Amino acid sequence: MKNPVYLKDVVTLQLDENQCTGCGMCLDVCPHEVFKMNRRHVVIQNRDACMECGACSLNCPAKAISVQSGVGCANAVINAMRGYNNGECCCGSDTGIAKTNNTGRCC
Amino acid sequence: MHKLELPVIQNQSNSCCGIVAAESENTLPDLNQSFVSGSIDTPVGRLPQVSSTLNREDYWGSIKARWAVGRMEYKIDPGIYALGTPDNHSTVFVSANYKMSFDRLRSSLCGRSGWILALDTKGINVWCAAGKGTFGTEELIRRIELSGLKNIVSHRKLILPQLGAPGVAAHTVAKFSGFNVQYGPIRAEDLPAYLDAGMKATGQMRTMTFQLKERAVLIPIELVEAAKIFLILAAAFFFVSGISGPAGFWVNAISFGLFAVSALLGAIIGGAILNPLLLPFLPGRAFSIKGFSIGIIIALILLYFRGIDLSVWPGRIESVAWLLIIPAISAYLAMNFTGCSTYTSLSGVKREMRWALPAEIACGVTGVVMWLGAVLIS
Predict the structure, then answer these.
(1) Which entry of A55, B11, B118, B142 is 20 to 30 Å from B148 by CA?
(2) What is the pTM of this model?
(3) For residue B4, is it within any domain?
(4) Which helix (H) or strand (E) is A37 found in, with range?
(5) Number of structural domains, chain B?
(6) Domain of B298?
(7) CB atoms < 10 A from the CB of B87, how many?
(8) Selected residue of B127, B200, B202, B347 to mutate for chain A interface (largest A Cβ count, 10 A)
(9) Cross-chain residue pair A75–B339, CB shorter than 8 Å
């Protein structure tokens, strides 16, 4: 079955095709087939499938990709609003603060 | 944006007869961990050896972690482990020090030898740790140095799980450590095929799915979390029913309270069990809408069995109250499932929450007020 897609037209992913060298690293790291190779450089083929994990922009040696990366986790957003657990979801806080608030979300 | 601090490297160059600096000796993983089956001597010292066969304790630990038992402490010592009988040409696989991640990796490499470099992700799985940067460029470079990997293998190649990529800049690792990062498949089970194909991943290996089985294993952790809220709310509804209704405490508690408890249970079943199971088939893209729809159906079914007298106001008000409370709870729990899902973006979640969270709170509060009113006037 085709993978489900989340909300439309919200993703912050940007690709500067002029800077792209066509190395194809983003094709390797993207878990949702957002990019495809188009002769000399890549293009975005499925923008709404992007989950903003940031793998492509971090691994782009040409710095051609930008995205406001983060974890799409409601519990983390709530924690951030309430100002505890370092605004993280479930998977533990690095500082060990607020251990009891480490609930079981997200992984 | 991504700041890179160069690791402070201990002097490892002293060495007659393979003796390495004292600091780095402390960084070798403990040989006395339950899953370690032996040891292997290397130029950096004696390293723990593991097999690709999981034992009963490994399986049991995994089940417990799924149910939130000892989940935050389910970790192994970071550092290098020998899988089977590797030599200096063997492949190096990088993983997290979450035991479940480590076990997944070694059990999928049945009959093969290699080195496993477990990064210190504080016992968090690869993907989540990459998201927060603990499975990251800095830690990888640091761990390569601390472990003495350069003295163990003659090549300069590492295989990382693809889902570690959100934390690791491959070109930066190459620049500072000399090791070339290759992103392997998403799922450890695809590793044998990937290796046999000469480290080539197919499109299917590179694509994240969220199938029934993948969703189902997440249900226990959702339930454990929901159960805490359930116990508090159920007790509150039961008690308030008892003291507010028209008859004596127990009569009221049974008439209103028992239904309230079953309604809460229904809401949680909807949000924490049915939503994950039926996710792709539920209406809407926003998770809250999916949860809300299940909640409405559950509320209607429960009210049908309750047989409320709709000809009088208390009955009507109580019905509407439950039609608000149950979907609100289901929607909230479903919304929190975004963190477990494999395809929601932070921008999307923020967009959804902007309207969904206030709506859920409004429905919940209005519902509770109406329910109280219904109990008091009946």
Answers:
(1) A55
(2) 0.84
(3) no
(4) strand A35-38
(5) 2
(6) 214-377
(7) 13
(8) B347
(9) yes
B 68-107 → A contacts, CB under 8 A:
68, 71-72
How far out from the chain centre does Cα B212 lie?
16
H/E stretch holding B226 reads helix B219-244
Q: How does pLDDT run along chain B (378 residues), one tens digit per residue?
A: 344 444 444 444 333 333 334 344 457 999 999 999 999 999 999 999 999 999 999 999 999 999 988 888 899 999 999 999 999 999 999 999 999 999 999 999 999 999 999 999 999 999 999 998 999 999 999 999 999 999 999 999 999 999 999 999 999 999 999 999 999 999 999 999 999 999 999 999 999 999 999 999 999 999 998 998 899 999 999 899 888 877 888 888 888 889 999 999 999 999 999 999 999 999 999 999 999 999 999 999 999 998 888 888 989 999 999 999 999 999 999 999 999 999 999 999 999 999 999 999 999 999 999 999 998 887
Q: Which residues 133-172 of chain B have a CB within 8 Å of chain A?
A: 134, 162-163, 165-171
Q: Are residues B63 and B188 in the same domain?
A: yes
How many separate domains does chain A show? Answer: 2
Give CA–CA dist B330/B115, Å, rounded. Answer: 45
- Shortest distance between the Cα of B52 and any Cα of chain A, in A, equals 24
Tokens of B268: 């949680």
* Angle separating helix axes B313-336 and B258-268, nearest 10 degrees: 30
> Between residues 203 and 222 of chain B, which touch chain A (CB distance below 8 Å)?
203, 206-211, 221-222
Size of interface A-B (CB pairs under 8 A): 172
Q: Is this complex scored with an ipTM above 0.85?
A: no
Quick one: A29 and A60 in the same domain?
A: yes
